[in-house]
């Protein structure tokens, strides 16, 4: 059976893929005073108000804080649609029956409420908590009645400010604006989204064992690396420079800002991109494919945000999670001079 592998508050977890509908970068949530204790807020998903719970809270961990890289997993279970907030979505994994521990030892989960744990599975040489989806919502009927009774006019601006006060008190005005933009984009119906927004062709590449994608309009070419000339005194993410078709371009390593593990083996391929009319080469592990991202046809999707930072969304393609990147924002953070271009 296929599972979605994720992390919440440092814990590795998996949940059944068939119940998952969509992956959404954390939008601005509205808190409702009368909401059940399991629900930290609601979000507008293309005209439907959907309750959202924090997995860390549900597992009984210390009250967690939200951050802009959090992901809401939209799912259908317990007779309703709801979102589950997690820190990171990693991959789709197949777990065989023999990988499920028949008598798991919950000793190392002393801080976790095991009432919502279906068991423990061995995934990629580590133990992952198998989430019991059917027991995530404490009172499904009450949550369903609550969700159906709330309307958009009920959500005043104070409800959004209360979300930050409770779950992200250190959020900057720029971070709040980012989440607000995500929510505004997410609330748009397919009829309100023009055809250009519906489809996006991307190049998919592998880096540190994960799959990433960028718009093909930004990709100039893929090259095999032969010799790289180092740049004395350059920041660690600038590996060196390349001579390409009469131009000298920097070669960047984006693994650190993406929080990826560095391999001891050198990377031998690069993707040449053009961002803000600046040519740059990015180290990659391998080239995968060119695909067209269609919001209406892909099973799981997140809406792209022009002002997001680095990782802006995820889609499921076969048995893999592909992470969409906003190169302009990522590279501008690494090289501030690019942001001013």
TrEMBL record:
Assigned GO CC terms: cytosol
GO biological process terms on file: chemotaxis; signal transduction
Superkingdom of origin organism: Bacteria
Signal peptide: none
Gene3D superfamilies membership: CheA-289, Domain 4, SH3 Domains
PROSITE patterns linked: CHEW
CDD domains referenced in this protein's UniProt entry, alphabetically: CheW_like (cd00588)
InterPro entries assigned to the protein according to its UniProt record, in alphabetical order: CheW, CheW-like_dom_sf, CheW-lke_dom
Coiled coil: none
Domain spans labelled CheW-like: 1-142, 199-336
Identification of the protein by name: CheW-like domain-containing protein
Organism in which the protein naturally occurs: Parathermosynechococcus lividus PCC 6715
